[in-house]
Amino acid sequence: MQSEILLTNDDGIRAAGLSALETALSSLGHITTVAPDREMSANSHRITVHLQAPHYYSAGKNRFAVEGSPADCVILACDRILKQLPALVISGVNHGLNLGGDINYSGTVSAAFEAALQGLPAIAVSSFFSNKEDYSDAARVTARIASQVLQHGIPPDVVLNVNYPQSWNGSVRLTRQGRQCGPTDSRKSRQSVIGANHTLMTDLEAIAAGYVSVSPLHLDRTAHSHVERLTDWLDGLEWSE
């Protein structure tokens, strides 16, 4: 039985990166695409909270366009469109990198996080912005990563944030989320202002060096390393009525 794979994005159902993924992943399982009916970039984890679900319509064989956000697409696909939950959710290929602080705004990454919230393995994939709109290489790399995920799985509540560089050096690096300085522009590579004393390269450093960056991101945003210190000073507070 073929694995069910759900594809989505934040660039819209007609995006070239989405079509590239459909082609590259076709041999890995049964593909269903559920994507916004228009560009929904930088929508982060916005969802529709009205009583009725967002409207959707057929956009081709196993393709559905949703009048909603990327996260809406994942929710709608799992609740109404798919007959069974997907073995893997992939969001992308985004037209522009999602690195460092830009991850917080990304609809591409948020779609993957919505999948993780529903207990599903998920990958977000983005590529250096190019006017050529050729995302076939990024899609093929994603297919290789997807094959490994289908075989070995992903830890619970973790998504893989994959970024493909302007000029790939042929290698892949496991990275951590970096941090930019100055104005953000997700279509350009930036140098990280942190990371010199850490084993893992940042996603920003890896992309600048020509690697495909794979960052495992966690749903739990608790600052566990600081809990003890914060507990100490919170215990010292005096409350008065």
Overview of this structure, please?
This protein has 241 residues and is an alpha/beta fold. The chain has one domain: Stationary-phase Survival Protein Sure Homolog, Chain: A. The protein is built from 6 helices and 10 strands. The protein has helices at residues 16-24, 70-81, 107-117, 136-152, 203-208, 227-235, and strands at residues 3-8, 29-36, 56-58, 63-66, 88-95, 122-127, 158-164, 172-176, 201-202, 212-218. Strands 3-4-2-1-5-6-7-10-8-9 form a 10-stranded mixed beta sheet. β5 (88-95), α3 and β6 (122-127) form a beta-alpha-beta unit. The longest helix is centred in the middle third of the chain and has 17 residues, at 136-152. The radius of gyration is 19 Å and the shape is globular.
Radius of gyration: 19 Å
Determine the CATH superfamily.
Answer: Survival protein SurE-like phosphatase/nucleotidase
Structure classification = alpha/beta
The overall pLDDT, averaged over residues, is 88
Strand content: 15-25%
Instruction: Describe the global form.
Output: globular
Task: Note the run of SSEs as H and E.
Answer: EHEEEHEHEHEEEHEH
